Amino acid sequence: MTDRVTKTAAEVKLIVFACEAGMGSSLMGASQLKKMVKKAKLEITVVHSPVGQLTDQADVIVVHKGLAAQAQAKVPGAAIVPFTLFMNDPAVKSLVKTLTAGEPVVSAM
């Protein structure tokens, strides 16, 4: 078993909301996450990307649980935060709460 990637709150500068194709409901989820980060006054960039186009610049990848293994394989140095619901998912809310508290983000994988 490998150690899970952990990013301190200060290390998180780029969150990528990843999806399969790059449109539809995941785009709305990415928009919601951007608003949550802005409201929390976090200096973090949030972008939306298909999982196949992820780069190693991502500090945290928020991705549907069905694509989490693919995201981890593509960017093994990022903390992976899988979600189930495209809107109002508890994992996404928890991520923002963790970062707002200055706590580290630990990859779920």
Name the descriptors.
two-stranded antiparallel sheet; Rossmann fold; 3 helices; 109 residues; four-stranded parallel β-sheet; alpha/beta
What does the secondary structure layout of this molecule look like, with pairings?
Layout (H helix, E strand, L loop, with lengths): L5 E2 L6 E6 L5 H15 L5 E6 L9 E5 L3 H7 L4 E5 L6 H11 L4 E2 L3
Structure summarized in a few sentences:
With 109 residues, the protein is α/β, with parallel strands linked by helices. 30% of the residues lie in helices and 24% in strands.
Strand content: 15-25%
| Distance linking N and C termini | 10 Å
Q: Which stretches are low in confidence, meaning pLDDT under 50 for 5 or more residues running?
A: none
Instruction: Identify the CATH architecture.
Output: 3-Layer(aba) Sandwich
Round the mean pLDDT to the nearest integer and report it: 93
Instruction: State the name of the first-level CATH class.
Output: Alpha Beta
Shape: globular
**CATH superfamily annotation:** Response regulator
The number of distinct helices, counting runs of at least 4 residues, comes to 3
Helix content: 25-40%
Count of spatially separate domains? 1
Count of extended strands: 6
SS class: alpha/beta
CATH topology type: Rossmann fold
Q: What Rg do the Cα atoms give?
A: 12 Å
Q: Taking strands numbered 1, 2, ... along the chain, how are they ordered across the largest sheet? A: 3-2-4-5
The description of the largest β-sheet is: 4 strands, parallel
> Secondary-structure element sequence?
EEHEEHEHE
